[in-house]
Predict the structure.
Amino acid sequence: MQQPKTLTLDPNLNKPKPLLFHQISVLLLTFFAYASFHASRKPPSIVKSVLGPDIQSANATSSSIQTLDSAGWAPFNGSNGPHRLGELDLAFLLAYSAGMYFSGHIGDRINLRLFLTTGMSGSGLFTVLFGLGFWLDVHSLGFYVFVQMFCGLFQSIGWPCVVAVVGNWFGKKKRGLIMGVWNSHTSVGNIIGSVIASSVLGFGWGWSFLLPGILIMVVAVFVFLFLVVNPKDVGLELEAEEVEMIVEGVSLVNAEKIENEENELIESEHSVSDSFGAIGFLEAWRLPNVAVFAFCLFFSKLVAYTFLYWLPFYIRHTAVAGVHMSHKIAGILSTIFDIGGVIGGILAGYTSDMLEARAVTSFVFLFLSIPALVFYRIYGSISMFANTTLMFLSGLLVNGPYSLITTAVAADLGTQSLIKGNSRALATVTAIIDGTGSVGAALGPLLAGYISTRGWNSVFFVLILSLSIAGLLLIRVVMNEIRVKLNEGKWLWLGKIVH
């Protein structure tokens, strides 16, 4: 009797997948994973204008005279509402900064796939929990601060994990244009989060938290099921390379650029004695340019994060052509700043590659961002075209030099004779710089919450002052770069201008 035919799967499905397939999968999964992290961070900035007091013109003929309406959600309405909103941002960012110090060390010791899934699930859970305050009619400041702190801790897991996984598959090589595109996940996530949160804001601000929270938990399921952390897990081998941690927001395109400048450091690590330990905290601060780069990053992140958390609120309370936009339109319109940031990051990286001078490029972007913010504040209210154009330009110039400042840090410190070959000393210095930048990121939104009650001109004055200080801090490094180029026989036209 003839046996019935059985259904068999295509044998090609059981064949090992090539390296390129896994690398593309890792890039896509980590891209959407970290984009969902940033998408779940956006709701607080989108709903600020709903939670906080509504600012109405006290005089119909003068938009410069404003009063605080009692509309909003207690405890964020009333005259101190913006202060409470700024404190929420501070709670999140301080917890996030503290968590970053520990997440990298923990990730080195446990399964990265499980750790990343935990971070995404926890972030989604506490994002949803914040939104439930709408339906549960919660008006306790302590509840929202508590939720934001734990949300910040879980959010801090994301960046060390995705960078470590990508490092496992790519090491320090093959960081071309595709890796620069990969690093746009922050801006893409901001845009997705803004659009989702703004679109459902009319149904109640709780929905603006609920949907992004669910989104990151759904993506977490895909990460848990399909992310392959290490090539060895699927029987593949890469050349043995040291995986380096990169600061959040740093384009991996630029990381490739500094690799050549760090070759001596990498090679010399093999010949360094094990007794050559980490340097002290105060000693690290005294190293050349450490304080300069640390405070430069401090002021740069202060500006970038103020826009990240307060731009929708500003747009909502600023009349454009005499008309105040709705909460929904203000949230969606704020994505133009992020779109400019994507273009700015690519443009800054391309320009620095052409000039082979990151500090010079960063200084030019910082210098040009000052008039951009001035024009945006003064002329952004004339028309919608002027508003969107100047907002795009501001995002391009503010976010453009962000990664370049940090990569200039790595290039400069990697060639210093005082710490050359001492990887632990380099880690100490990097922690100082990143930590100082994170303090600026936490301080900016808090200051905006307090200063905005005195008028937005004061907020923009602080932002412009911060950009000016960041640029001035780079002058000595810029002069050194120019001097090196002139000694190499390049940029001779600049020498003629100077003389």
